[in-house]
Amino acid sequence: MFFPANQNDVISVATLNRMARDLLESGLPPMWIGGEISNLTLAASGHGYFSLKDSNAQIRCVMFRNKLSQLDFRLSEGMQVELRGTVTLYEARGDYQINVDTLRAAGLGRLYEAFARLKAKLEAEGLFDNQRKKTLPANPRRVGIITSPAAAALRDVVTTLRRRMPAIELILYPTQVQGSTAPAQIVAAINAANLRAEVDVLIVCRGGGSIEDLWAFNDEAVARAIAASKLPLLSGVGHETDFTIADFVADRRAPTPTAAAEMVSPSREALQQGLDLTRRQLERALSRLLTDKTQQLDYLGRRLQHPGERLQRQQTRLTQYRQQLQQRLQDMLRQRQWRLDALRYKLAQGKPALPRLQQALQQRQQQLQGAVHRQLTQQQLALGRLEATLLAMNPEAVLARGYAIVQNEAGKVIHSPAELHEGEAIRLQLADGSARARVELEHGTQSQLPF
């Protein structure tokens, strides 16, 4: 660390503040400090600035957003707290301050720690999951209220329900809402309501108070009874800034008892307005329907005629059809008569001369006979030529002149002595049969047959 060598050495204000900060941070370890919050400012950045004071002194404090967001409650002016932080100095202004790491309500640190432990435990078990939470009925007939008969919250709930929907029946399940015996009574009331099954929804409620006052609703047995309830259950404990374990486990959480009553009951005024709107829509729909039906009736009335008039019109149309049919028949008969006369005329003009036609027929017969005779003679001559050619080419005729066909054992025709071998068996095809022989080779390069 830098220190001036003598009194004539001059340092800057920034250097002095840095030295002071280093001394504070190195000389004072993080510690717990208790006091009252004053001059609280929650900046838009999410950081919190306040002073911590007691009856004799005060010190500036800053709690940055990442630390402040971890608190389970909201800081408020005049709150007694215990905080743990590092003593330091803000060099830009030379302000001596504490950078706060952890903060809890004074004297309630163990309660907040117990609250946080139970909250983490039940959340890990899934008791806060939205999937397991039930839907509140839209129009309940009976509402059960679990609270103290002397609680102001009961009056708020009853007043709100009577104002919004007087027809809803209310059933009170009286219980203590504060003190050491309150958790067991709350659990018993929830179980009794589920056993009797006489209401459509339950409201567990009480007014605001300190953490000690509301501690019965941070009890594990109460939380599990709420989670096990088969009836939809709404928590309306404390004020808007108060949060209890019951709020997280309940099917719905209301910021106040009055808000809880509003959430479980439909508004009579809203229902009346909806009914009036439906009535007006129905009236308009009926008016349109009546108008449409009236117009349709008028249209049908104009189309409706007296049966006598309709019969007269049909009789007139039938007379017209009869006249048209008679006219068409007469026209058809005239056309057929004209065609018959024309055919008679053509028949008279085209009457054939039979002697001339018979003579022409005889001539055609004679010509046809001559042509057939000539054609037959030509075909016979051609057949004779083909027969002579076939006989000349017939191999049997060749064999009859003393020739023979030589074949080896495989049936192949032998054309040359070079194709024969010594002692080979051969077959001779003659004109009137066949014979077998064996080859003897003569001196020379050619084989001869033993004829």
UniProtKB/TrEMBL annotation:
Keywords from UniProt, A to Z, are: Coiled coil, Cytoplasm, Exonuclease, Hydrolase, Nuclease
Domain Exonuclease VII large subunit C-terminal residues, every copy:
127-437
Q: Please give the chief subcellular localization of this protein.
A: cytoplasm
Annotated OB-fold nucleic acid binding domain residues: 11-103
Q: Which reactions appear under catalytic activity for this entry? A: Exonucleolytic cleavage in either 5'- to 3'- or 3'- to 5'-direction to yield nucleoside 5'-phosphates
Tell me yes or no: is Cell membrane among this UniProt entry's keywords.
no
The record, for CDD domains, names: ExoVII_LU_OBF
Record-linked Pfam families = Exonuc_VII_L, tRNA_anti_2
Enzyme Commission no: 3.1.11.6
Q: What InterPro entries does the record point to?
A: Exonuc_VII_L (IPR003753), Exonuc_VII_lsu_C (IPR020579), OB-fold_nuc-bd_dom (IPR025824)
Keyword Hydrolase part of the UniProt annotation:
yes
Where is this gene product found?
Cytoplasm
Q: Could you give a GO molecular-function term held by this entry? A: exodeoxyribonuclease VII activity
Relate the assembly described in the record. Answer: Heterooligomer composed of large and small subunits.
HAMAP family registered for this protein in UniProt: Exonuc_7_L
Family of the protein in this entry: Belongs to the XseA family.
General function of this protein: Bidirectionally degrades single-stranded DNA into large acid-insoluble oligonucleotides, which are then degraded further into small acid-soluble oligonucleotides.
What is the name of this protein? Exodeoxyribonuclease 7 large subunit
The species is Vogesella oryzagri
Q: Which gene encodes it?
A: xseA
